[in-house]
Design brief:
globular; 5-stranded mixed sheet; 341 residues; alpha/beta; 42% helix; single chain; Nucleotidyltransferase, domain 5; binds zinc ion; 2 domains
Length: 341
């Protein structure tokens, strides 16, 4: 059976078809429909059916979305930026496509695929952070995504930005209706808003990144604020999870300077978190545990920014921030099948 995977993002929809061996037969991308719900799901169904016609065989369908699809009702929830949010996406798409459709949270798909064969391959505890139209996250422990009781595991975007400065309060209004969420600061629209407030210029996030690289002081200052806030937000994740690897995804993960500048900010904030983590973290002295760590090391050694360093007199894992090894939606959509079963 050929599998079609669909990645529904805030600004684009991608569809990929793979055969049983995992070979990619087709990949297409379209802007996300900026219309009402009925038109949007109609456009998604049409896109899938066109892909199916192109590969010339009946396909199964797996979909990765922001937020989560309720197991009971099939309603999409917590995908605040989407016209699909709060709507019975699963039953409606199944009716339009005439088959079962499986769903998984896109951040979980991303984190899982990076942990299985991506930049975090072999790591035991991985946090995947999506910095795009929205801010999402996924936690993978020992090769399994942690979905949680309400399918919101890892969703850090609607936590408040930690340790806000007076000028950051109450913070920008978030799509969820509250003020000062991490997403309101660290999403692409959040970055653009912050730049507009500071400079009066309306620019796209990619433009701000490109201009900062050419020496534009206003854009560079916007990104410095962004990086400092990202370090604060990730320090909270490290305090809670102590991940071996943090992989950044989403459009803003293309900004190379994040990988140069965020780790320094993180180290400054991480110090107390590390001491706290050392208190509660059992030290694995078993053969299996060591083997798992060695496997994790092999995985990290292949990642773009892998390093292993010494701290407090003994070698320890350091949380690393890396780019995803592959930006293809294919593995994410494969994951939609794997995690929804
Ligand atoms: Zn929010």
């Amino acid at each position: 059976m050929i599998r079609i995977g669909v990645d529904i993002g805030g600004t684009k929809i991608e569809v990929a078809a793979i055969d049983e061996s995992g070979a990619e037969l087709l990949r297409r991308r379209e802007p996300a429909p900026r219309v009402g719900y009925a038109e949007a799901i109609g456009a998604i169904a049409k896109f899938v059916l066109e892909a199916e016609r192109a590969v010339g065989a009946p396909c199964s369908v797996g979909i990765g979305t922001p937020g989560a699809v309720s197991r009971e009702s099939g309603v999409l929830k917590n995908a605040y930026a989407s016209v699909l949010n709060g709507m019975p996406l699963k039953p409606d798409l199944e009716r339009l496509l005439g088959r079962e459709v499986r769903f998984a949270n896109d951040a979980n798909c991303f984190a899982l695929s990076e942990a299985v064969d991506g930049a975090a391959k072999g790591a035991q505890l991985v946090f995947g952070a999506i910095l795009g139209t929205g801010v999402g996250g996924g936690v993978v422990v020992n090769g399994r995504a942690v979905e949680g009781a309400n399918s919101i595991g890892g969703e850090w975007g609607h936590n408040a930005l930690p340790r806000p400065a007076p000028g950051e309060l109450p913070g920008p209004r978030c799509g969820c209706g509250r003020d000062g969420c991490i997403e309101a600061f660290l999403s692409g629209p959040g970055l653009a808003r912050d730049h507009r407030l500071a400079t009066g210029e309306s620019r796209e996030p990619a433009e701000i990144v490109a201009l900062a690289d050419t020496g534009d002081r206003g854009c560079a200052a916007t990104l410095e604020r962004y990086e400092e806030r990202l370090a604060r937000a990730l320090a909270g994740v490290i305090n809670l999870l102590d991940p071996e690897i943090i992989v950044l995804g989403g459009g803003l993960s293309n900004a190379a300077r994040l990988y140069r500048n965020v780790p320094g900010g993180l180290r400054r904030r991480e110090r107390s978190a590390r001491r706290g983590a050392l208190v509660v973290k059992p030290r694995s002295g078993t053969r299996n545990g060591l083997a798992a760590r060695r496997r994790a090391w092999i995985g990290v050694a292949r990642a773009p920014e892998a390093s292993y360093h010494s701290a407090q007199g003994r070698r320890r894992w350091k949380s690393r921030i890396t780019t995803p090894a592959c930006r293809s939606p294919t593995r994410r959509s494969i994951c939609a099948f794997a995690t929804a079963t």
